[in-house]
Amino acid sequence: MATSITVLGSTGVIGRLTLEVLRDLGDRFEVRALTAGQNVDLLIDQIVATRPAYVAVGDETARKSLSERLPSEFRHMEIGVGTEGLVTAAKLSADVVVSAVVGAVGLLPTWAAVDRGATVALANKETLVAGGDLIMPRVTAQGSSILPLDSEHSAIFQCLASRGSLVGSVRKLLVTASGGPFRTWDEAQLENVTVADALRHPTWNMGRKITIDSATLMNKGLEVIEAHHLFQTPYDSIEVVVHPQSIIHSMVEFVDGSIIAQLGPPDMRLPIQYALTYPERVKRQTSSLNFAELSRLSFEAPDVSRFPALRLAYEVGRAGGYAPCVLNAANEVAVGAFLEGKLPFTAISKVVEQALEEHEQGMPGSIEDVVEMDGVARLLTQAILKEGRWRD
Ligand SMILES: NC(=O)C1=CN([C@@H]2O[C@H](COP(=O)(O)OP(=O)(O)OC[C@H]3O[C@@H](n4cnc5c(N)ncnc54)[C@H](OP(=O)(O)O)[C@@H]3O)[C@@H](O)[C@H]2O)C=CC1
Ligand SMILES: CC(=O)[C@@H](O)[C@H](O)COP(=O)(O)O
Ligand SMILES: [Mn+2]
Q1: Domain-terminating residue out of 148, 173, 189
Q2: In what residue span(s) does the 1-deoxy-D-xylulose 5-phosphate reductoisomerase N-terminal domain sit (predicted)?
Q3: Domain boundary residue among 148, 183, 218?
Q4: Which residue has the least CA distance to atom 13 on ligand 2?
């Protein structure tokens, strides 16, 4: 019988690659539901190609546009809207939910999928950053599982899959980072970064928000928190290593000093397929890495003085409570402002730091508390931007 699958964020970079991998895998999968934000044209193509039972879009305007333009044979389809539509999609009885929306909008649908014991293939790291302390125990309680799609976490997952003894054998996780487009830029150059500069990632082709996060190293910070939750590893045992070629996707050092690394070309179809077919490895038409041509793999330490977002992420991870949720929400707002040309690049982490200084401390008791704090932190960050308080 085919495995049923729901893709949240099917019109994004990861969503599109997921559908490509599913197409290549043939009839072992069937699509149950798809969700998009605003890209109705692409969603219509995806509906025609995969024939889901349910779809959802970001808002009422997108719903109206979709229902008017759907080919007649799909006119009967139920179309969900907004967070409610995402949650409905996640609750449908698919075996696997690919969580590939961007941002904390993924919190409630990812929670809904976990809550019904589904397997979640997780790209949406913001959800785990904001709500990981509640989500991971829920995964265990509900018999759900989270399979990482993020390349570094897939790499670590693959390294751990090959270890002999499970408990206590890991010394540290080594999370690799490309260093982003500004790895070699000095502080004066960073003051004059343009949006186009920041969107030019050296090794990966990704959505706009994560591309900016890679440029500030916030992406690596979010990934450290993600690794902490996924692999139940203390922050002192998670190290970031800058590796500009993005060939080693991460490594695990074991207590005997041995290190296992996962390597491959920078192509997200690999971790996506690994999660979807886990624990099987299925043949793919890919070219092998040519080590003679690669010639050099290099490594350096991250510079948290030029890229303070990474330091902030370690700090909030260690602090716990609402702090990681606030960091994430403030970052989403600040990155949005940068992309609109309203905030300098170097101000992104200053805005986040200011929001962390001003926010209310505390511990969320439920996922709804996290969603509420996400909203509060966004309003706080907008006020910080409006009043320029990040300059203080
Ligand atoms: N791209 C990559 O290589 C990697 C991405 N990730 C993570 O995966 C996630 C997705 O990244 P990526 O695919 O690059 O991002 P994209 O921006 O390309 O895609 C985001 C998806 O989310 C949808 N979306 C955005 N906002 C909303 C909303 N408010 N309501 C409903 N749907 C919404 C978009 O819809 P639409 O386009 O129709 O508006 C789109 O389908 C992120 O969390 C990212 O950090 C992790 C590792 C690698
Ligand atoms: C493909 C992927 O997993 C991204 O998260 C990638 O790692 C971003 O690159 P950086 O290492 O530059 O953040
Ligand atoms: Mn990654």
Answers
A1: 148
A2: 5-132
A3: 148
A4: 214
pLDDT at 168: 83
Identity (one letter) of the amino acid at 357?
E
Same-domain check for residues 359 and 214: yes
Nearest to 145 by CA among 281, 328, 327, 275: 275
Residue 166 shares a structural domain with residue 143? no
| Mean pLDDT value across residues 212-239 | 98
Which residue type does 319 have? A
Question: What is the DSSP pairing of strand 170-177 with strand 238-242?
Answer: parallel
pTM equals 0.98
Distance of CA 114 to the CA centre of its chain: 16
Distance between CA atoms of residues 90 and 144, nearest Å: 13
Indicate whether 136 and 62 sit together in one domain: yes
Task: Determine which residue's CA is closest to atom 48 belonging to ligand 1.
Answer: 150
Residue 242 lies in a domain: yes
Residue 268 CB–ligand 2 contact under 6 Å: yes
pLDDT in tens, 159-211: 998 765 456 899 999 999 999 999 999 999 999 999 999 999 999 999 999 99
342 is in an annotated binding site: no
Domain count, the chain: 2
Mutate to test the pocket of ligand 1, among 6, 7, 8, 13 (most ligand atoms within 8 A of CB): 13
Whether ipTM exceeds 0.90: yes
- Residue 366 marked as a ligand binder: no
Mutate to test the pocket of ligand 1, among 10, 11, 14 (most ligand atoms within 8 A of CB): 14
Q: What is the pLDDT of residues 83-96, one digit of tens each?
A: 999 999 999 999 99
